[in-house]
Each structure stands twice: as C-alpha cells, then as structure tokens.
C-alpha cells in the first residue's frame, strides 16, 4: 500500500524552510501543490501554501502533525508561479512563506470565487423525464433544468424554479444528481474602446520595432532612447502584436503616479483599458485584479513593483518602463528587484522583456556590452522636437534668494509670459530640512533617530522623514531660548517664494505630502497637463515619464546633493535624475531650456554631462567601478542588523563576520561590520556587514551558510536582521 504523501507547506513565518504535515483526517481528496491549508503551528493555527509533496520527511511520520483543513479545492498557483516563488526565496535569501505572502493578495481568505452547482449523475441523465413528470412534476422540472445548463448554479435555479431546493435532497438520495462547488473564474471583461492609429514611426523607431519582432522566445532588450524619442510608441506596436496573438502583456512602471497617463495612452492607442495592480488599490480591488490576470480575462496588466508576481494564464511579453529607477527595488522586508525578478520570470516562461529608459542603469549597459542583452538606441526626439538647452548657474556669481537665483527667476518670468510652463525640481519635501537657533546654533533633532527634524510650514510641525515622528514647531530654542529659524529649502519653501515673485500665476506643488489624499495626485497632474498650472514645483515624482505639452523650462534647485555622495552610485543617480527631469522640457515644437543651480561649477561631473550627456557619465563611471571592482563588475550582499541596545547589534554582526571568515570560501571579501551612517533610527542602533565577490555562486554559497547560522543563534533573536542581495542603498 502506498504511503500517504507528506505535504511541504510554506508558512508566513521568518524561517527559511518549509514545514511537513500529513493531510487532514477527513479522508477527502488529497490537496495538490498550489492549494492552501490551515495547519497547527505551535499553539496557533496558520495558513500555508502547499509547494510540493514528498514521500519522506526528516521527522518520523509519527511525529508529523496533520493539516486541519484544505482551503482551496483547486490550486491557486500553477507550477510556473511556484517556481517564481522558490526562485525569489532562494536568490534573495528570504523565507519562502513570506515570499508566498507577498505574492498572494490575501492570507486565509477565499482567493477564488466559488459557487454551488448541481450536476446530473449517469442515473439522472438516463432517467425518462416525461415519465417522472407524471408522478413528480417538480423533480422532472429540476432534472430538465439540469440538462439545459451543466453544471447549473444555485442562483440560476433560484430564478427559474422557485422551491427547487425541496426536490434536491430527494434526487441526491436517489443518486440522480450531486451537489458540488466549482471555481468561478468569470471576471468583468476589460473596457474596450475604438483604437486610434499612432503617428508614423521615424526610421529609428521602425528599425527598433523590426529588431524586436524578428525573434521569438526569451530575450532581453534595452530600449535606450533619449527623453521624448518615442519609446512608448515602440512599446505600443509590439504590445498590439502580442495581444493580437492572444497572449497577455505585463507592464511595470516605477510609480503609481505614472499609471494614469500610461492608462490613457494605452486606451487611446490599443483600445483596451489595462488592469491596474499597485499598492494604492484596496484589498478587494487587488483581489479582483489578481483573479482577472490569473483567469486570462485581463490581456493587459499595468502595475508597480509588486505586479511582477501577478499570475498570468498566457504570458507573452513583459515591459519595464524606466528600468533604471530605484523604486523597482523593495527596500524593506522582502528586498527584491522587480526588474531582475521579471527577467528571471521571462526566461523561465521563454518570453521577451523590454527594458526602456533614457538613462539605462550601468548594470544593463554592461550586460548589453557583453552581448547578453540586445541594445537598441533612439537618438532623436519624435515629431521633430529638439533637445533642451542646458545652462549652468554658478551660485558664486548669482547668490540665492529663497533658494532661487536671479537668472532662474528671470527665465521663469519670460517663459510664463509666452504662455508656457516652468517646472522647479527639488528632491526634498517640506519647508526646510533644518530648524536652527539663530543665537546658539542648536538644531532640532529627532529624539529617536540621528537625524534633524524637517520643517513643515503647512502643518506647523517638525517631522522626521526617517521614523515618521512628528512634534509641534519650536519657535524658541530648547537649549538657550533663542529664536529658531528654518535653514535650507524644500518644496514648500520654494512654492512660497514663487508665490511671492509670481502672485498672478497658478502654482502647483506635487510631492508625497501634497498628493497624499486619494484623487489629489490625478487632479494635480490634470492641472499640469492642461496648462492651467503655469509653474510646477515638485520632487522626483515630476521627473519620471510625464509629458507636459506646454512645459518649456526646467529649473533644478539643488543639484549638488549627488556630487559628493558617499555611495559609489552617486554620479550615476545624479546624471539619471538630471537627464530625466530635463527631458520634461520642450517635448513639442518649442525648444526647452534647463537651468541647473550649482555651487561647484568647476566640478568635472558637469564637463562630462555637458560634453557627452548621460552616456559619457556612464562610461567614466563604468571605468571607475571596474578599477574598484564595484557592481556591475562584482556582486554585493549586505547584512543589516538593528537592536535597541548597541552591544546586541555589534555582537550579532561580529558573530556573522566570524562565521563568514571561518567558511574559508575563496573569492569573497568581508567588509565590516560598521555602523550605518545614521546609526540610530526609530530607537534602534543599526550596523551592517558587506560581502563582495566577483563570483555570484560563491557569494550565494556563503549566504546560505550565514543565513542558517544567523537563524540558529540566540543573539539573532534580540536583533532585527536582514540579508539584502544586490543592494542599491549601501548607506
């Protein structure tokens, strides 16, 4: 007799293993991989996903506990979805149960709609309905209804045959019919519209599209086009071909704010309203979107980072817009890169991936140089638009007034008078980053972090942008009683200064503070798109992918933050930020201007950027990284730890470093441990250990050893620790 299979169950707990259970005692159908089960876990009852079944366990069968109940009649996740979960768990060294929890829209709740149905058994199908009708007309009517619609939902019978339920038991007892529950995959069909023909492609676009359509199966293509070059139009043509073939398309964008404009373009060009999947949806909306994608009824899915896990019935293409954007990397909990996960998923599914950007990441450029990725370039703006003129404002020659130089103020006035728009970019929200005492120089600091409090004039408060602490604005110094004044500029202060200089103009601020309430973001972007708002002020939310037809001037308020970054990615990110925001200017017929304020006009970075654009900066940065063996010429992993007591953090990290050195694996550098640049955050003392290797396999071999060691250590229970594979933030 064959032994009952053992269920390998992934449970949402911080342990990097699966747990073995026996099936429930009810003797029902054996649950299959991809179904959820309720299981006993210690004194609790938790929900887990069956990822596999096995014939044996590390524990004797007599010691295995039984699952309590099976929650799903049919698997929620197919073999491809389970492969993706295992890959993410393995590569990012994260517990499989927590990966499952991130991939599924709800835990313990019904994920697939089910309904009760009646079906005819062979005896019922063979019955003479006319003969039955002579002695039991109501039973005959029920049998006749079941022959017309099979299986027949209860709700249909309620409408057609009032009182049918009294006959159900009689016919079930005769063995003529049976009651079952079936999965209802029916979802609303996507909203469809009359598509509009796009513009005529220019030669570069036609060449790119031909290259994209000339191959089948898995390939990664970097679509490297200057801002306004028509990358989206190339996407549209390829997306249409994939949809016409009956396949699904997944589009990933870095920010929720980009979805509304993308939706409008897809609706206009392709005639389909895409299914949205992002963190701004309610639980019910996410569940409905998940079901629609899984069933295949949604041919086009548009989402942010988490949409990379959405199940697809017939996948055909993945598009990642603004692939360089740091928002694609999750920075808390499961620290995955949606871009890299999408590439791995596409390879497994044997479909194509397009990575679009005007400023491709150095990792992607390097992979293209090696020949692993196809590299297509669009060097000209579509529709005859010309690149904006870049101008550097030396702040030693032009002092600031409320963060704005005279040449910039003059340019704003000139452009607005001509009926155009101006955008002021400063990647710092709030009124001012510091509140300082004018007498003793004391600065208001967070009581839980090693950071200064940010002044928010609108709410008359001080806020810590690291832990979220908020307290009332200090008008008097807490040390000497002197007067406190804001120091530096944020979006609120720039907005206030602009209202003073341009009182007649409509000024709109767009940052995470001003767009917090539902609907405010769409309203703000609508004002910007229509031209009603003549002057825009905002953070990086304004720099990504938006098309403002009347915008001809961009002013960069504080460009020096990235010049002296301690992160080796500093120059890359500064160049990306500047090129992206500059690309908002002059996308129509009118040439745009970009004014960059800097106190370091002689810095060599500016010569690289102005003489050769982003790719010149990228060439210099790649040469520096190769000399120093930084990514993409090596692989990194960062072990972070935080505890309420500093000694606990250091004890844990020193033990991890000792374990790494004791492994004697050749080819891995162990750097640290060191304190995080902001050592105390939210009341916890933070430190980190950096691992570097040119060999990815050796690095992951060491991480396997360290993860098991850290999970088993008593010191690991006193700290919050994490492993960040391919980190994009070292400090």
Separation, N- and C-terminal Cα atoms: 59 Å
Assign a percent range to the helix content: 25-40%
Mean pLDDT across all residues, rounded? 88
Stated plainly, the CATH topology of the largest domain is called Rossmann fold
Number of helices: 20
Strand content: 15-25%
Description:
By secondary structure, the chain is an alpha/beta fold. The chain contains 20 helices and 32 strands. Strand 11 (275-277), helix 11 and strand 12 (300-303) form a beta-alpha-beta unit. Helix 1 (79-91) crosses helix 2.
Quick recap:
The protein has 731 residues and is of the alpha/beta class.
Secondary structure elements and pairings:
Layout: E1 6-11, E2 19-21, E3 36-41, E4 44-54, E5 69-70, H1 79-91, H2 96-103, E6 113-120, H3 122-126, H4 129-135, H5 137-148, E7 152-153, H6 154-160, H7 165-174, E8 177-184, H8 203-213, E9 219-225, H9 231-244, E10 248-252, H10 259-270, E11 275-277, H11 283-295, E12 300-303, E13 315-321, H12 338-349, E14 352-357, H13 362-369, E15 374-378, E16 389-394, E17 400-401, E18 404-405, H14 406-417, E19 421-425, E20 434-437, E21 454-456, E22 461-463, E23 470-472, E24 484-487, H15 491-501, E25 507-510, H16 520-530, E26 535-538, E27 551-556, H17 570-582, E28 593-598, H18 604-628, E29 635-643, H19 646-662, E30 668-681, E31 684-693, H20 696-712, E32 720-725
Parallel strand pairs: 9-14, 9-15, 10-12, 10-13, 11-12, 13-14, 16-28, 19-26, 19-27, 25-26, 27-28
Antiparallel strand pairs: 1-2, 1-4, 3-4, 3-5, 6-7, 6-8, 17-18, 20-24, 21-22, 22-23, 29-31, 29-32, 30-31
Helix pairs in contact: 1-2, 1-12, 4-5, 8-9, 17-18, 19-20
């Amino acid at each position: 007799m064959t032994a009952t299979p053992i269920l390998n169950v992934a449970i949402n707990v911080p342990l990097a293993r699966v747990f073995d259970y026996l099936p429930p005692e009810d003797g029902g159908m054996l649950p299959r991989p991809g179904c959820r089960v309720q299981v006993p876990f210690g004194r609790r009852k938790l929900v887990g996903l069956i990822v596999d079944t096995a014939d044996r366990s590390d524990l004797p069968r007599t010691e295995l506990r039984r699952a309590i109940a099976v929650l799903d009649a049919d698997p929620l996740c197919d073999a491809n979805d389970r492969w993706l979960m295992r890959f993410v768990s393995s590569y990012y060294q994260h517990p499989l149960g927590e990966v499952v929890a991130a991939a599924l829209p709800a835990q313990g709740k019904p994920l697939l709609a089910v309904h009760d149905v009646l079906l005819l058994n062979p005896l019922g199908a063979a019955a003479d309905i006319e003969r039955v009708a002579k002695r039991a007309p109501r039973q005959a009517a029920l049998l006749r209804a079941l022959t017309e619609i099979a299986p027949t939902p209860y709700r249909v019978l309620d409408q057609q045959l009032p009182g049918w339920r009294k006959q159900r038991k009689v016919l079930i007892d005769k063995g003529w019919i049976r009651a079952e529950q079936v999965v209802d995959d029916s979802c609303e069909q996507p909203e469809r519209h009359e598509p509009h023909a796009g513009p005529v492609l220019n030669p570069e676009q036609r060449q790119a599209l031909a290259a994209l359509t000339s191959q089948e199966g898995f390939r990664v293509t970097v679509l490297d086009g200057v801002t306004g070059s028509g990358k989206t139009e190339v996407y549209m043509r390829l997306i249409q071909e994939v949809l016409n073939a009956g396949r699904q398309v997944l589009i990933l964008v870095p920010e929720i704010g980009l979805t509304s404009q993308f939706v409008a373009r897809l609706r206009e060009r392709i005639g389909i309203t895409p299914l949205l999947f992002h963190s701004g949806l309610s639980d019910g909306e996410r569940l409905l979107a998940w079901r629609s994608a899984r069933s295949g009824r949604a041919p086009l899915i548009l989402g942010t980072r988490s949409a990379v896990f959405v199940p697809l019935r017939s996948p055909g293409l993945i598009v990642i817009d603004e692939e360089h954007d740091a928002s694609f990397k999750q920075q808390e909990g499961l620290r995955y890169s949606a871009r890299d996960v999408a590439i791995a998923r596409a390879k497994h599914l044997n479909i194509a991936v397009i990575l679009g950007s005007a400023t491709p990441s150095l990792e992607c450029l390097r992979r293209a140089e090696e020949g692993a990725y196809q590299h297509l370039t669009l060097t000209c703006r579509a529709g005859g638009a010309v690149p904006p003129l870049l101008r550097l404002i030396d702040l030693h020659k032009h002092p600031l007034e409320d963060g704005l130089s005279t040449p910039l103020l003059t340019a704003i006035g000139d452009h607005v008078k001509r009926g155009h728009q101006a955008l002021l970019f400063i990647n710092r929200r709030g009124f001012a980053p510091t509140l300082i005492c004018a007498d003793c120089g004391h600065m208001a600091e967070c009581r839980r972090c090693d950071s200064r409090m940010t002044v928010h004039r609108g709410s008359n408060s001080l806020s810590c942008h690291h832990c979220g602490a908020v307290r009332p604005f200090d008008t008097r110094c807490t040390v000497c009683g002197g007067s406190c004044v804001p120091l530096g500029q944020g979006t609120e202060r720039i907005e206030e200064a602009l209202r003073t200089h341009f009182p007649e103009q409509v000024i709109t601020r767009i940052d995470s503070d001003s767009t917090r309430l539902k609907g405010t973001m769409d309203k703000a972007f609508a004002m910007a798109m229509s031209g009603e708002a003549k002057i825009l002020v905002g953070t990086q939310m304004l720099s990504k992918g938006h098309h403002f037809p009347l915008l001809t001037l961009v002013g960069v308020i504080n460009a020096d933050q990235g010049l002296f970054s301690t992160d080796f990615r500093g120059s890359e990110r500064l160049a990306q930020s500047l090129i992206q925001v500059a690309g908002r200017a002059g996308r129509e017929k009118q040439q745009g201007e970009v004014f960059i304020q800097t106190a370091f006009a002689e810095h060599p970075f500016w010569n690289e950027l102005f003489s050769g654009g982003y790719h010149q900066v990228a060439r210099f940065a790649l040469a520096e990284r190769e000399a120093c063996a930084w990514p993409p010429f090596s692989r990194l992993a960062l072990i972070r730890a935080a505890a309420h007591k500093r000694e606990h953090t250091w004890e844990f990290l020193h033990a991890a470093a000792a374990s790494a050195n004791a492994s004697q694996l050749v080819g891995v550098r162990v750097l640290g441990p060191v304190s995080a640049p902001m050592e105390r955050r939210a009341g916890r003392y933070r430190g980190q250990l950096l691992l570097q290797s040119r060999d990815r396999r050796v690095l992951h071999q060491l991480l396997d050893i360290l993860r098991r060691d850290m999970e088993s250590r008593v010191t690991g229970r006193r700290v919050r620790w994490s492993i960040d594979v391919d980190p994009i933030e070292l400090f």
